[in-house]
Amino acid sequence: MKILIVEDEPKTGDYLRQGLREAGFAVDLATHGADGLHMALAGDPDLLILDVMLPGLDGWTVLRELRRQGWTRPVLFLTARDQVEERVRGLELGADDYLVKPFSFAELLARVRTILRRGRAGLEPTILRVADLELDLLRRRVTRAGRRIDLTAKEFGLLELLMRRSGEVLPRSLIASHVWDMNFDSDTNVIEVAVRRLRAKVDEGFEPRLIHTVRGMGYVLEVPEERA
Length: 228
What we know:
Blueprint (H helix, E strand, L loop, with lengths): L1 E5 L3 H13 L3 E5 L2 H11 L3 E4 L8 H10 L6 E5 L4 H10 L3 E4 L4 H16 L6 E4 L2 E4 L4 E4 L2 E3 L3 H12 L7 H8 L10 H13 L8 E4 L3 E4 L7
Parallel strand pairs: 1-2, 1-3, 3-4, 4-5
Antiparallel strand pairs: 6-7, 7-8, 8-9, 10-11
């Protein structure tokens, strides 16, 4: 799952980005209201964490414009403004929750998971399945043929991407940008190593093999045609 943070305080933004990445989320960060608006519309994250006091467009304006354009993803306001009137205003504009600074990261993470669980209920599946491979997005759990598979945060993110786009060959550049938030460097083998380790956990000892290399193109997760 991808989260977009719009926060102009560098320490707070970096703290949130690092903590949420360690919790297994893909995270983008914007420090300006207009940039946050553009990234939300273009990137369609699963959740927006939005500060109120921002340069350019404030958080109220960003949320108002998002809802005006039909953007339906959940929004968590994160701000030092704790007046009841401010909270009511945020909720009336379409926010799903409101957390006041200073905050406990454990509480923020709990709220994030609750919002995602509530917001996706009935809209998008929270469990991805391909053959006997199952990935639970909310519980961060992977099983195959009923057997638990332990993955690192990056391996989980890589598998989620492959399963969401099952049957589609994903180039290394796309995997690098989605899972590692970096531009692809042909001199590094980080993606090959990650795929090899993921394949060892997901495919070894199971049939059929699901993760395949397409030479010169990238990787695909799919059931072989003779098994489909």
